[in-house]
Task: structure prediction
Amino acid sequence: MTMNIKFSLSVFFTLLYLIIIIGDSEGKNNLLIVALGDSLTAGYGVEESLSFPGRLQKRFKKKGLPHRVVNAGVSGDTTAGGLRRIHGILKQKPDIVILALGSNDGLRGFPPAEIKKNLEAIIKICLENKTMVLLAGMKIPPNYGPKYTGEFKAIYPRLAKRYDLFFIPFLLEGVAGKRGLNQADGIHPKAEGYAIVTELVWQALLPMLE
Result:
């Protein structure tokens, strides 16, 4: 009788352990990803399904993965705007935040120190809430002068290194400056351009999904 009780308890705890492990595994395989950005994230000029968050969602679905992607891009948004929005976004309990802000700050000539301060605050809040951050670097046109453009560009790799973040050096790599991939304003990608951006973000996301 005693042996049977011990055996039953052993089986019970083994099953309980397996349930916990399986539950944790399923949780990790059902991630919420929020793309926090401006018009480059919102998909200005194209249907939302053709923005990079929309394309990421379709890619997950095609691969049979249950991950959900939320497009939290707001046209014209700045790093200060993102900082004001981040607490509301974190109420959704995202596993990953794709942080793609700063281009509007740069185009408006905001001080690099102010841009860095806002981005750093967003990053800290995310990390404090145990949310992983994929930081997307930005660049601005050279007509702003080498000093300003250099200081602006340097913000992103420095933050990525300091906080050991997953990092995309430039969100529009392979797209910026190419007439056939951009709309008439020369800033926002066409659908074909967003396809390239999506691949760039996808490759950066893959190690975060493991």
User: Anything to note?
Assistant: The chain has one domain: 31-208. Residues 11-27 have pLDDT under 50 and may be disordered. The first helix runs from residue 2 to 28.
